[in-house]
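[job 0412] stage=complex_fold ligand=guanosine-5'-diphosphate-alpha-D-mannose status=START
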Amino acid sequence: MQKSNSAVLLPNPIGALVIPDLPERRSALNPCYFSLVIPTYNEGRNIAAMLERLIPLLDDAYADRYEIIVVDDDSPDRTWELACAVAAVYPQVRVIRRQDERGLATAVIRGWQVAGGEVIGVIDGDLQHPPEVLLKLLDAVTAGADLAIGSRHVAGGGTSDWGFLRRLLSRGAQLLGLVIAPAIVGRVSDPMSGYFLLRRRVLSGIELNPKGYKISLEVLGRGRIDRIAEVGYVFQERVAGESKVTMQQYVDYIHHLLKLRSRGRVGRIRSVFPWGRFARFGLVGLSGVVVDMAVLYLLHEPASPLGLAWGLTRSKILASEVAILNNFVWNDRWTFRDLAGQQNTSGQWVKRFVKFNLVCLLGLGLNVMILNLLFNVFHINAYVANLLAIVLVTFWNFWINLKLNWRVTSDR
Ligand code: GDD
Ligand code: MN
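[job 0412] stage=complex_fold status=DONE, emitting structure tokens
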């Protein structure tokens, strides 16, 4: 006899967004090991297919030691009802229908609040996150990672047919995050990912206060995380329905980052700044300064052997480009040698070279602005101003290249 929806629906957790420790009394027989939350809004055309893909996969690997918790925000297309129909047949599927609260990030946390697993996780409900990758994420957590996160920007990662604008928006958001809260956004190669698992103890007892879409930021910013594993996955095209991302989510994203940054972070975040690698980058940068200065002198100084006496900005731009070429070769072969070695096809080399130029050209724009500011507004000697500008831009170039360039690999 088909169970009624009310028999299947879980009560809505309310109040503070705090995930409790494991329930004292857990069924001694088969304690739940893994709880997967699927946040849904208007996924009526995806949810059944999603569950049909997940259940056999998890049955094989974890028999009856897992649960899937669909947290739906009272979707107009009644996704929750379709999920209940599956839950009536598969008791490991549980459903929450939220009517008084909305939002992706809080939906995930509410699901984790009722979860019984030692390991908790989240996956999109639209089949854009390949369910098969779950087993690799689970292996990583079982092997000791506190957090195992799906990434589009490591080996085996990529996006399907994203247009240039969507890539630019996604990368732009990441760039902004690396500037606002580097210690959080810089911890993983794909901080925008909503596909990850973590040990319950990472968050248990901590009051969470996310904003908008990116639950990953809340976990990275407040969780007790020492070991992070990244697993490459290719973000799929949606087959039905559409993304709910609007400009509001971008505003919430910045607000969320500022909140995490301002109130400090709970949890043991070790210094993420790799000073040793930065020192190498700095030495390479020094060689670039010599090249930059020498070419600037040759082009700008009338008394130089070339005697061209070009204008300061034109000379500077050319001098910088020659220095960029010099720096790329040294950084690829020395500073980031270990990372470059994992992505050594010629296509990846060319991609790194183009990205290095883009990051450095962005840095050049910054450099010329700072140089002209110091030279024309603060009347600092041109060469001293140039040196100051180079130092400031070196930090920018290093951080963005490390996080967005040498970590990126295949795009398919
Ligand atoms: N309960 C609930 N409430 N679920 C929501 C809400 C909401 O307000 N908004 C979106 N969802 C669900 C969607 O139904 C889907 O299952 C999942 O959250 C992701 O939403 P999409 O709208 O499909 O996001 P996307 O395709 O742009 O993906 C981006 O955001 C995801 C979430 O952070 C990418 O960055 C993904 O990597 C990321 O997982
Ligand atoms: Mn999606």
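The chain is about 50% helix and 10% strand.
[job 0412] exit 0
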